[in-house]
Design goal:
Radius of gyration: 40 Å
Distance between the termini: 10 Å
CATH superfamily of the largest domain: OmpA-like domain
Strand content: 15-25%
Shape: elongated
Number of domains: 3
CATH architecture of the largest domain: 2-Layer Sandwich
């Protein structure tokens, strides 16, 4: 450190006299540390034996912390290396007292300088330097100058994330579901379908259009159709059972005959009285007695007698339910399951993504994303599409979160990560997210939780964060 300081002064300052003064000081082992509790600690050793001054002179070394624009400074305790007469004069007259250190030059001693000051924001980027001057017997001084020694940088670390995108497993078969609800009307107490009755053409078209969308896709084939029929609670329970079952079968036969589908392609089930649907509608209705009605629906009152009891308990509200809510409980839920052939050529996958992205599996979307440069618009678009197509898939959400973080959309990343549990892959991305927010302690905690599956990457991220204590660059 002495040689480093000498080279600065002699080379940068070009002052022989000043270089001579510093050569006499013997300062070494300078260290500057910012503590977690907001203190700045400066340490150095001063070799008194290396200091040679005249008996009636003293060398005054005063450290300063100075802002880069020189607008602010903080004076640290001085070190005074005095010749014999000057030492006793200063000591007798209390010219330099604690925390300044008055030392006898030439003694075979090393003074361990240590001081602690409150860290201030402006010190984040600042300079440590020495004011060195020689004082004579009559109070005269010479060679006063500020000599920068170290650049201090305590700005938050510029965190560079390392993203781990997870490759989804390739499925044996690519099965997709299209779902919907159809509100088909029937003549009272009848199960036969009349396409021209009320709004049935439009409601039947919902189902047929869904099937046609698959049949028009040359790469897809319908594999299964599930129909679940629901009836409203009014009327005898046994009759509701008959109507729900019969109307569901009638819809199945109607669709099967239109497309000449085999019988084993279909699965039917029915719910005679849609109490769950009624409860959901009542909760949103704003009715004054909605909570009491919901409480009754949740009770274990026999389902065969529940509607009659509901009418007795809520005579004023029941007509409203019958007119405004019960009709919406008569519906058929449908699930069309179809299979799409696999794609292996990346150019074909790219073309399908433009025209029919719903034909692609999560694995194929991953292969497409990897064909682009990470962080590009095309790369991010693929992962955004994947999470829209597979909103409940953990891998899709984790990859979408990483893509969102990479473009600075931390809010979306948080939303996607909220859909997945605390598996190691998700914990790694949570670590990246917290680090991007500047929450480095939380980031380290998440990275540690992710080490089972991301050992190397997680440890590198932890090391980058934990090793950062602020940079001190000596000149």
């Amino acid at each position: 450190m002495k040689k480093l300081l000498m080279s600065i002064i002699a080379g940068a300052m070009g002052l022989c006299a000043m270089a001579q003064n510093v050569d006499q000081v013997g300062i070494s082992d300078i260290s500057v540390e910012k503590t977690d509790n907001g203190q700045l600690i400066v340490n150095m050793n001063v070799n008194q034996k290396q200091t040679s001054v005249a008996y009636n002179q003293q060398l005054v070394v005063t450290p300063y912390i100075v802002s880069l624009d020189n607008s602010q400074q903080f004076k640290l305790p001085a070190v005074v290396l005095a010749g014999r007469n000057a030492y006793y004069t200063s000591k007798r007259n209390d010219l330099y007292t604690a925390p300044d250190a008055l030392l006898r030059a030439g003694k075979n001693k090393v003074y361990a300088y240590n001081t602690s000051i409150p860290f201030q924001d402006w010190m984040t980027n600042s300079v440590l330097g020495f004011d060195i001057k020689t004082e004579g017997c009559c109070g005269s001084a010479s060679g006063d100058a500020f000599l920068p020694v170290a650049d201090l940088n305590y700005a938050p670390p510029q965190y560079t994330a390392s993203y781990n995108y997870i490759e989804p497993k390739a499925a044996d078969s690519k099965l997709f579901n299209l779902t919907g609800k159809a509100y088909i009307s029937f003549v009272v107490n009848k199960t036969a379908i009349n396409p021209d009755y009320m709004n049935n053409k439009a409601e039947l078209k919902k189902i047929l259009d869904t099937i046609d969308a698959v049949k028009d896709n040359k790469d897809a084939k319908v594999r299964h159709i599930k129909l679940t029929g629901y009836a409203s609670p009014e009327g005898p329970y046994e009759n509701n059972v008959r109507l729900a079952e019969g109307r569901t079968v009638a819809l199945k036969d109607y669709v099967r005959n239109l497309y000449a589908f085999p019988e084993n392609l279909f699965e039917t089930s029915s719910v005679p009285e849609d109490w769950e649907g009624l409860k959901a509608a009542v909760e949103k209705s704003g009715l004054a007695d909605a909570s009491e009605i919901v409480e009754f629906i949740n009770s274990d009152y026999p389902i065969e007698k529940r509607n009659d009891r509901l009418r007795q308990l809520f005579p004023d509200t029941y007509p409203f339910l019958l007119k405004n809510i019960y009709p919406g409980l008569r519906h058929t839920d449908y699930v069309i399951t179809y299979e799409v052939r696999k794609y292996t050529d990346i150019n074909e996958i790219r073309q399908v993504f433009k025209t029919r992205p719903q034909n692609l599996s999560l694995n194929e979307l991953f292969l497409l994303a990897n064909s682009y440069e990470p962080g590009t618009t095309e790369f991010n678009e693929v992962f955004d599409t994947a999470v829209r197509m597979f909103p409940d898939d953990p891998t899709a959400n984790i990859n979408a979160a990483s893509a969102s973080i990479s473009r600075g959309d931390l809010a979306s990343a948080e939303k996607f990560l909220g859909r997945v549990g605390n598996n190691p892959e998700a914990e790694y991305v949570r670590g990246v997210l917290e680090a991007k927010k500047g929450n480095y302690d939380k980031a380290v905690s998440h990275f540690k939780n992710s080490r089972d599956k991301n050992a190397k990457a997680a440890l590198e991220q932890i090391k980058n964060i934990e090793n950062y204590k602020g940079a001190v660059s000596f000149r």
